[in-house]
Amino acid sequence: MQRRKLGRLFDVSRYTLGGGGIGQVWGATSREEAIKTVQDAHEAGITLFDMAPLYGNGEAEKVMGLAFPTGYPHTLRLTTKCMLGGANGTDVERILTASLQESLKLLKRDYIDVFILHGYVVPDNWHTTLPPKFLSKVAVTLSTFNDFVIPAFEKLKKSGRIKAWGVTAASTQVTNLKIINSESPPDVVQCMANVLDSAGSMEISGERAEPRAVIKQAKDQSVGVMGIRAVAAGALTDTIDRPVAADSSEQYDYDRAARFRLIAADMGASPAQLAHRYALSMPGVETVVLGVKNREELVDCLLAEAAPALEASVVQRIDTAVRN
Fold first, then answer.
1. Record's superkingdom (predicted)?
2. Which DSSP category does 14 fall into?
3. Per-domain residue ranges for the chain?
C-alpha cells in the first residue's frame, strides 16, 4: 500500500482503518469479525488506526486491544479522541487526561500517536438554531479551545502520553480556518473527503460545506489531513446498510448520488470502490479513513486503493454529474 507523510509527523498508509465500523456504528458485526478485520487491515499494509471512546461505547478500542495479543507491531500507529462538549475551561485538562487514560487501558498501550478533539469548535457567542442541550454535549467555544484545550494537549505531549494532537474540521468555515491558521495549529485535522462535499449528519453550521478549502489551507500550513466520510455515511454505496429516516441527511445524500452510482456501474466498479478512489485522488488528503465493519468491505476498499488513480476526465465527469 502506498504511503504519504502526515503533515509534519510521520509516514502513514493511504488508508486508515476507522473505529466506527469495528465499533458497530455503521451496522452490526461481531467482535470476532472486527478483530479479524483489524488484523487483515494491518497485513494489507494499513498502518494507522483511528479510534474513539464513542465508537460503540469503547468497543472499537477493546477490539484494537485484543487484535494484537503479543503486542502492537512497531509500524502501527493509533489515534483516539475525546468529546469535551461544553466543559468549563478549568475542567478541560482533567477530562482529557481521564479520557486518555481509559482509552490507553482499553487499547493496551502506554501512549497515543495522535489525540483528537472529538466534536466541534464553534465561535464564541455563536447564534444558532441548534438546541443548547445538544450543543453543550458536542462543542467547545473557540476561546475555550485556545485558552484551555491547546495547553492541555501540549502538556500531554510533553508528558509523552501523546505524540501529536488534532481536531475535527466540521464546524463553521471561519472557525475551521482560524484553527489551522493559528499560532498553535493542530498537527492533524480530520476533514470531509467525499464526492458530495457532505458532512451529512455531522453538519451543524447550515453553511454550504467547503471542505476542499479547509484541506488546501491545511496542506499550505503543513497540517496533516485525514479524509473522513469517503462514502458519506453510506450514501455513496449501493444501499445504506442501516435504517435511516426518510428525511435524514443520509437519505438526502443517497438520493442525490443516483448519477454517481450509474457512473460506477458504467465503470464496472461498486459505488463504494469508486467513492474511495475519488477520495484518494483528492489533492491534500494524505490518508482516507475507512468505516468498514468486516473483511468483505475491507477487500472492496483495498481493490480501490490498488486501482490506478482516477483520470482528471473521470473526476470531472463525476463532479458534473453530482453537481447537476
1. Bacteria
2. S
3. 3-323
Q: What is the pLDDT of residue 238?
A: 93
Helix (H/G/I), strand (E/B), else coil: 289 = strand
Residues 6+ positions from 216 with CB-CB distance below 8 Å: 283, 284
Q: Which residues contact 63 (CB under 8 A, 6 or more apart)?
A: 19, 22, 23, 31, 34, 35, 38
CA 13 centroid distance within chain: 14
Residues whose CB is less than 8 angstroms from the CB of residue 244 and which lie 6 or more positions away in sequence, other chains included:
234, 250, 251
Q: Show the 3-state SS of 72-107.
A: CCCCCEEEEEEECCCCCHHHHHHHHHHHHHHHHHHH
In this structure, whether the domain defined by 3-323 belongs to CATH 3.30.470.10 is answered with: no
Q: Which stretches does DSSP call E strand in the chain?
A: 3-5, 11-13, 15-18, 48-50, 77-83, 114-118, 120-122, 139-141, 165-168, 188-192, 224-228, 287-290
Crossing angle of helices 295-306/31-43, nearest 10°?
20
Look at residue 101 in the predicted model and tell me its pLDDT.
98
Residue 143, φ and ψ in degrees, nearest 5: -65, -40
Sign of torsion over alpha carbons 8, 9, 13, 15? negative
Contacts of 198 (CB under 8 A, 6+ apart): 192, 209, 229, 232, 235, 249, 253
Which pLDDT does position 135 carry in this prediction? Answer: 85
pLDDT of residue 241: 77
Q: Which residues contact 182 (CB under 8 A, 6 or more apart)?
A: 146
Mean pLDDT, consecutive 10-residue stretches, the chain (324 aa), reads 97 97 88 97 98 95 96 96 90 97 98 96 89 87 96 98 97 95 97 95 86 97 97 92 89 95 96 97 97 94 94 96 86
